[in-house]
Amino acid sequence: MAGWNATDIPDQKGRTAVVTGANSGIGYVTARELARRGARVVLACRSEARGTEALDRLGAEVPGAEAEFVRLDLGDLASVREFAATYTRERDRLDLLINNAGVMALPYGHTVDGFETQFGVNHLGHFALTGLLLPVLLGTPGARVVTVSSGMHAVSNIDITDLNSERRYRRWIAYGRSKTANLLFTHELARRVTAAGADLVAAAAHPGYAATNLQTAGLKLEGRTAVERVVLIGNRYFAQSADAGALPTLYAATAPGVRPDSFTGPALLGWRGSPARSRRAGWTLNDRAGEMLWEESERLTGVVCDQLKA
């Protein structure tokens, strides 16, 4: 992996990718670089205005790119179902599903379906999307599902008895739990794929400390301008760019020999640098915890993955 960068992405012609949250940050860079290497890319974003603006920007940066915007709100399971139904009706292959979109350290709130926002968007929305797209993923030889987690998963394991933080809400703990859920989901998906003998790789990645709007979204909602300024200063002087932050995702999605349930992040202390194998908390490799989270996610979302029974 040493020195791996976007120029090392293999030819993606004939391949199709769905990238959630592709309107900005590492999601946009991921979509752009996949398109640059010839992939047909679907920018799956909540905001139509930001999604279409990103599509126009991508077209200007990569002339001739095969890309389109399709609305997807991961905080609304009806939107997830509509997106998946349209996709599977209109297309017969999906090579790359990049579960990138996310929210971070928001004030306490709920999704449309009543889930705590960070858990609902970061995990349940992507769980449902992946489950609903499984038929086309499993029908595409060599398909991959890459879920973007965070080094912040290490701040907390999930609490299977309080997944929606109803007993007590601490924004950073809730964020860490949602990112642990991303890794447990990847672990369990990889286990089930192996048991089924399916041709699908489930992997995870994280961007390290990358300068994106993710860090300031919650602060803007609360009008915490002083803290927002401090974060922006940190982003300017200490964070790596969104282009660099997207490299672990791009590696996990395209590099040859990526192993199931691998976790790729920046090489230098997990903060910045070329893609490398990343450390992860032991609780994200617990088979029983992964199975319990999967079963509870099926119950909460109503999306039952019949193709990959335990």
Fold blueprint:
Layout: E1 16-20, H1 25-36, E2 40-45, H2 48-61, E3 67-71, H3 77-90, E4 96-99, H4 117-138, E5 143-148, H5 171-196, E6 200-205, H6 214-222, H7 225-237, H8 242-245, H9 247-254, E7 263-268, E8 272-277, H10 287-301
Parallel strand pairs: 1-2, 1-4, 2-3, 4-5, 5-6, 6-7
Antiparallel strand pairs: 7-8
Helix pairs in contact: 3-4, 4-5, 4-10, 5-10, 6-7
Radius of gyration: 18 Å
| Structural class by sheet pairing and helices | alpha/beta
Uncertain parts: 215-222, 226-237
- Please tell me what the overall shape is: globular
Question: What is the helix tally?
Answer: 10
Q: Give the fraction of residues assigned to helices.
A: 40-55%
Calculate the mean pLDDT score and round it.
91
Domain module tally: 1
**What would CATH call the architecture?**
3-Layer(aba) Sandwich
- Beta-strand portion reads 5-15%
Specify the CATH class.
Alpha Beta
CATH superfamily: NAD(P)-binding Rossmann-like Domain
Terminus-to-terminus distance: 33 Å
Q: In CATH terms, what is the fold-level topology?
A: Rossmann fold
Q: Strand order, biggest sheet? A: 3-2-1-4-5-6-7-8
Number of strands: 8
Biggest β-sheet description = 8 strands, mixed
- N-to-C order of helices and strands: EHEHEHEHEHEHHHHEEH
Family: Belongs to the short-chain dehydrogenases/reductases (SDR) family.
Protein name: SDR family NAD(P)-dependent oxidoreductase
Pfam families: adh_short (PF00106)
Domain Ketoreductase: 15-160
